[in-house]
Each structure stands twice: as structure tokens, then as C-alpha cells.
Design a protein that fits this description.
By secondary structure, this protein is an alpha/beta fold. The protein contains 4 helices and 8 strands; from the N terminus they run βαβαβββαβββα. It binds inosinic acid (IMP) and magnesium ion.
Length: 178
């Protein structure tokens, strides 16, 4: 698997720094509150699990699996493949995902959670690809910026593979023609 990697975009050490920084920021911002972390499957793993170890707050967690498809308007619609087990009404929510690209998925999720009565909804993503944006949405907590190229690892997949890489990297061209 390691032989398929052309270059490392975000190293293991850099990811560790990101987790520490975001953990501190969230801990500070949510003093006195008990946020509900909602991870979007499957890309939120392992980011969500590792991030939670850096959060010094009482909190709870849940997961959703959603896929977005473009609607008539640019924000798109969302299909729920696996829903939450938690009632979000009145809750302070932090949605955790691997990457903010077009923003269709996250903007649809935010609308859904607000419609269900969430008190506040903030977004935390490991990576931000600003050049890919279609929907008008930004994340509140961002690990790192990446250029508009396809990356894998630490949750991000290519055809369901490479999610288990301990860093973020770019694949060799020949991998796509296999
Ligand atoms: P969007 O922001 O709605 O376009 O959706 C973002 C989702 O697309 C992410 O949660 C990933 O699953 C996937 N995605 C976007 N860019 C990449 C990438 O570079 N590598 C792997 N998956 C990606
Ligand atoms: Mg995803």
C-alpha cells in the first residue's frame, strides 16, 4: 500500500499538531457546555476518535452516514444512509468530517440538524480544499488547507482503500489506471 504513495501532503507529526491545536480551541470555546460531536461516516474516522482524546470537556458522540447529490440549487440534497440515535433538539453540535470540498454534504447536514432543532451547529474538518467550494459554507475548525488535488489517508479513501494510512498523501498516477 505504501508503494502507491507519490507524496505526503500532511505528515503524521503535522496531524498530531493539528489534533492538539483543535482540541485546545474546542475545549476553550465550549467551557461550561457539553457538546455533541457528530461524525460523518466513514471519513471522520480516525480523525474524530483521535481529536476526542484532546478534548477536556464532558461531551457525547454519535455518527451519521450521508451522501449528497446535486439538487436544482447549488446546495444539493442529502440522502441519509444511517441516521443518528440522538435527539439533537437544544444541543450544541460539532459536526466532524474529513474534508470540506464542494461543501454540499456539510451544508445539507447543517440544514438538517437546524431543522431538527439543534441549538448551535459548528463544523470541524481535518482538511479544507477552498478551490473546490460550490456551496456557501465554511468550517469553524480547520486542520489544514490542501490544494485542489485528490488526497487519501487518515480516513480519506480512493475506492474505499487507503483510509488506514497514518498520514495524508497523493497517489501515484499509475494507481488510477490499475
Ligand atoms: P463535499 O464537500 O460535499 O464535496 O464532500 C466532501 C466529501 O467528498 C468528503 O467527505 C470526502 O468523502 C469526499 N472527498 C472530497 N475530496 C476528497 C479527496 O481529495 N479525497 C478523498 N475524498 C474526497
Ligand atoms: Mg466523506
Amino acid at each position: 500500500m505504501m508503494n502507491d504513495i507519490k507524496k505526503v501532503s500532511v505528515s503524521k507529526e503535522k496531524i498530531e499538531e493539528i489534533l492538539t491545536r483543535l482540541g485546545k480551541e474546542i475545549t476553550k470555546d465550549y467551557q461550561g457546555r457539553e457538546p455533541l460531536f457528530i461524525g460523518l461516516l466513514k471519513g471522520c474516522n480516525p480523525f474524530m476518535v483521535d481529536l476526542l482524546k484532546h478534548i477536556d470537556l464532558y461531551c457525547s458522540l454519535d455518527y451519521m452516514d450521508v451522501s449528497s447529490y446535486a439538487g436544482i440549487k447549488s446546495t444539493g440534497n442529502v440522502r441519509i444512509n444511517h441516521d443518528l440515535n440522538t435527539n439533537v433538539e437544544g444541543k450544541d453540535i460539532i459536526v466532524v468530517d474529513d474534508i470540506l470540498d464542494t461543501g454540499r454534504t456539510l451544508s445539507a447536514v447543517v440544514s438538517l440538524l437546524k431543522a431538527r432543532g439543534a441549538k448551535t451547529v459548528k463544523l470541524c474538518v481535518l482538511l479544507n480544499k477552498p478551490e473546490g467550494r460550490v456551496a456557501a459554507i465554511e468550517a469553524d475548525y480547520v486542520g489544514d488547507l490542501v490544494p485542489n488535488e485528490f488526497v487519501v489517508g487518515y480516513g480519506l479513501d480512493y475506492n474505499e482503500k487507503y483510509r488506514n494510512l497514518p498520514f495524508i498523501g497523493v497517489l501515484k498516477e499509475e494507481v488510477y489506471s490499475k
